[in-house]
Structure prediction request, 530 residues.
Amino acid sequence: MASGKLSPRQKMINMMYLVCRLLLEKKKSSEILNAFKTINASISKTNSVLDGKNETTYDALKAALEDPQQKQKAEIWLPKALKCKELSTDMVTYIEKMKQDLKKESDLKIEKGEESFKEDDLDASTRYMIEKKKGTDLYNKFKKYKQDILNVFRNSTEFDADLKERVMKDMESIERSLPIHLDVPASKPGKTSYTKDGPGWSQATFYMTPTLASVTILTKMQNDVKNSEAQMSDYCISQLGKVKLIYDKFAAIAAANTTYCMPGDEIEISAGVGAFNDQAKPIINIAGQNVALNADGMAVWKSTASGAAGAKEVPVRIQYTTPDGKVESKTMSIKYTIGTPSGAAVMLDKMNVFYIGLDNPVTISSGTGDDKTNVTASGGGIQLSKTAPGKYNVRVTSVGQSSITINADKKTTTYNFRVKRVPDPIATIGGKITSGKVKKGELAVQQGIVAVLQNFDFEAKFSVQSFDYIFIPKGEDLSSGTATGPAFPGRLVDQIKNCKPKDVFQFENIKVVGPDGQPRKIPGLGVTII
Prediction:
């Protein structure tokens, strides 16, 4: 069956082959062949899961291009993620062709869309991968792929000195964690000795290996590529919140919370510098007094509307330092009008938009009194219900525009509002852990995936309907599964309990339902045990 001294791995595979031959005599060969098929099918399924996860990440990066607050960051990191995708796709395609060529070496036949080949052929892998040196070609291309995706970041000319230094350190860490392994077994006395290069790796991996086992090895290598792609794309999307952009264009900005108010209403003016950074050092003077900056780099001045009705002005002066050290200033006037206690008004109690699936409280008043004020609403599937004098609750069902019309004192006034969906939540583990490194003990006390809605003024909850999980133990084959509901299934709980440093858990295809009752798919997350 094979000559020469073989490694324990090769002996195990050959012994499985002998058992297979014995079972063939008893017409039970499928029991052995199905073991290889099961492993190959499992990895192929995981590869499909990774494809979906990676596409979700790319979609999130592309969506960031449409967000004015994230566009500049996305323009830096999306091209790098797409370059890694291109390199990975080329590598996966290359390996897929090798799988097909290897099957052809084993008399591949395709009938009615179904493949068949000599799955137990021991000579095909030796002939194709070793004698034709295809294994050495794969070894060299696989090593080059690893360096190419790292060089996407290492060779970038877009980073400033500080960011470049941080990215280089990150790449050192990522290089150690990428699942690109081409280890050649160490030589032992009395055993086969392999050279630490492509021919040695090919000999150790494919010599006298059944074709189906070799195909499974190649499928696992495709899985390593897709995992590496996922790691790089996750790194790119994580940088959207870490990039320190250097702005060279500044603009003084100032705005009031309203342009029309009634006596006694609060007037709030916010002033600052567009593209603010710590070096701009703005000095804000509003209504003749300097106002300190808050954590967001804005000065907020508050007063109460008073005096006679009519137009009012508040002077604002903003002084700041540009990146080149030049001091500039701008003076402007914020205008508003004090009205008389008549007519009608609509005030949103929380914000200037109605959200689908939520109670949107609204205050409506007019100078004629509540009992003489007629209120109607239309658009966006709006339903308006009165909860108290001057107090209403709005429920909407469709994205677009809605309006509230007030008829008071023989005057009709219509106010238009936007109707939006509640924004997507982010996925967390136990409501605390996001992507990154985590201690085993901290992960072990969490019970499942929790969808958290960040920076949103309303109380809105999302329930997790299902998610896919992948466990990637360091140096071992990965396993995957699907959970219904937010809780970790028992198998995953056991894997977390027994995990080791550098093991990786990924959670993808996370489906949630929010207040509007519509299912959504949100980006996943991944953690590495430290």
Summary: The first strand starts at residue 109 and ends at 111.
